[in-house]
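Milestone 3.1: sequence recovery, worked example.
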């Protein structure tokens, strides 16, 4: 089945210059007992991707990405939410590592799903690996939110996206950098696999374990992060959740 899928729709981009059309050789034969006889042979032109579907799918992906980025910048969608009241405007709050990770895997799976819909022209399925990755993102956010709700973490003003997600109150941290690198690496590999093989990958269980360990380390290190009950007079490094 995998070989048939590869012949019909594998790596559609290699035929983009031909209008996403692929020539498939065929042979019709039968065996009458004295040997195999060929009735007909030739080539069929197979339309791998319908261009209108391609444009519609890409437009949807672009719209979803732009809306996510705009809302993440202008609202609390990707930013820290303090357990109590704060005078810091929403647009000036630190970006949350846990929320960014959850949004990252949401976007990866969304792009993959739309691409599979474009190529297959049907309702594609979700792989166990995709569900597992989204589950890790959701679990990380829930754990981080639970830790933040259990103590009065000081909310600092944003010092930029990358500084926010890679820093706690003491500065840049290795466990946040590790979580960022692994998520970026496997997210890009996930997309490349989907585009080339026209199917969502089922990552090895060790990869999911590795991502789960990185997320667990992040959630664990949030517990001893600096906490205070009052605002600081001088804004220290950011404290993105």
């Amino acid at each position: 089945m995998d070989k048939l899928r590869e012949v019909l729709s594998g790596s559609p981009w290699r035929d983009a210059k031909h209008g996403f059309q692929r020539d498939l050789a065929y042979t019709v034969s039968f065996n009458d007992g004295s040997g195999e006889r060929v009735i007909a042979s030739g080539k069929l032109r197979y339309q791998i991707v319908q261009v209108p579907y391609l444009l519609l799918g890409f437009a949807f992906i672009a719209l979803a990405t732009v809306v996510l980025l705009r809302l993440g910048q202008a609202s609390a969608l990707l930013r820290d939410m303090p357990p109590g009241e704060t005078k810091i405007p929403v647009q000036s709050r630190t970006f949350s590592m846990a929320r960014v990770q959850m949004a990252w895997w949401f976007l990866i799976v969304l792009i993959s799903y739309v691409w599979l819909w474009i190529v297959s022209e049907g309702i594609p399925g979700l792989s166990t690996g995709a569900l597992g990755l989204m589950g890790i993102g959701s679990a990380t956010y829930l754990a981080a939110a639970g830790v933040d709700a259990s103590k009065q973490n000081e909310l600092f003003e944003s010092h930029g996206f990358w500084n926010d997600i890679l820093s706690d109150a003491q500065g840049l941290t290795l466990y946040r950098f590790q979580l960022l690198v692994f998520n970026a690496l496997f997210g890009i590999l996930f997309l490349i696999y989907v585009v080339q093989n026209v199917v969502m990958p089922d990552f090895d269980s060790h990869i999911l374990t590795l991502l789960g360990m990185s997320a667990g380390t992040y959630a664990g290190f949030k517990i001893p992060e600096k906490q205070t009950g009052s605002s600081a007079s001088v804004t220290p490094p950011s404290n993105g959740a």
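Residues 227-238 have pLDDT under 50 and may be disordered. The chain is about 50% helix and 10% strand.
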